[in-house]
Write the structure tokens for this entry.
Amino acid sequence: MATEKEKIKDSLANLEKIIEWFDKQGEVDVEEGLKKVKDGAVLIKSLKTKLKTVENEFEEIKKDLEKDEE
Amino acid sequence: MAEPMMFNFDGDTSDTPERIFTVSGFLDFVSEMLHIPDLYVQGEVTGWKTHPTGVYFSLKDKEDGAVLDCYMNPYIYRGLGMMVEDGMEVKIGGMPSIYKPKGRFSFKVENLSLVGEGSLKKAYELLKKKLENEGLFDRKREIPEFIHTIGVITSKTGAVIDDFRKNLEKRGYAVSLRDVRVEGARAVGGILAAIKWFNKHRPETDILVIMRGGGSLEDLQAFNNELVVREIFGSKIPTICAIGHDRDVPIAQMVSDLAPSTPSIAAMEINATWERLRNISQTGQRLEYAFESALASLRNDTRHYTHQLMAHVSRVVGRGRELAQGLASCLDRVGHGIARIKETITAAERHLAAADPERNLKLGYSILSDTAGKIIKNIGQVNIGEEIIAKVHGGALSATVTIIQKK
């Protein structure tokens, strides 16, 4: 979980860097921009998958805790 | 018996023949004539001599000093169980006889009893001294503990046995009674037989109790009889002798292992043999109390520790709840984190989508640049006739500026 979180964190950081890269661009390097977008898309897809896994685990834990409380 | 040669009792010798005896025959005849049953003579003993062949003595009449020579078989003497000496008043039973070798008249004694307190007292003292010297009074055996079987020798008709029974505690005693006469010298045989019977037929009997109520020396003769006394001493079964008495302790009591003064006390002595059990019972009770006390203490401790444990459990459970709540809170934070990440991703998606040059080109936008590749962002950067490059979806094209319209 911790490793998974770190990975998400890393992915988010990388995504942030891509966004920042776009924000800093005075002139758009279309090819580089496209590459960055593609990288960002990969990161987003990966993040969504990881996040889905985390979210499922989160939901299971939540259910378990709710059961225990009952 | 020698037959007389002739008879002439009335002195008439004319018709009846003379009666001529031999000496021996005459003495036998006279002896036969003197053979009268149930003859008793009472008098004072003088010249008492014991000899292996028998006891020789005389009885003297106190009134006129008349003397009767007496002979007693040693076997009979041994069976009397009493000590006799000169001066004692006695009653003898037997028959007159004539000692043929000497032609001397004497009384053949078959039984002898003492008469009067004085004689009885003398006999008592003599026997007491004799047995004391033999050490018969020194041996005292322990009365067994937890007596169960009791052999009783007494008269079944007296109050003695009732007193004895009444005072026995209800412990399931097995009492076996041998009914004997206990009065006077004639009681000796029965008492002797009873002691022998128990030792022979009931040797497992725990205690032998010989009893009778109070009485004079004459009444208690059997209990001052040497034969009875030695039989008691020789009994393999321990003995209790309870004989009521006025002054002189019966010798039977002196040789018995225990000599309570009354039958009631004899019963109590027997009850006392269970005393240790009573103590055991008390010990048991003490043990029970101690156990109960220890149990109560243990119960208190258990209650105390249970409370303590419950308190700990409550604390642990409370802590558990706190932890669970903390965990739930953490989980919420994780949930929020996930949501934030989602938002971040969504925002990034939007951002990237917006920044994607290809997307804009697809929408119909194009990117203009000069031939050097510099992006034309302002109208002021181009001149009429200048060649420019336009990037569009799917490729690029070259164009020449012909018109410039500034806003």
Observations:
- Residues 4-8 of chain B have pLDDT under 50 and may be disordered.
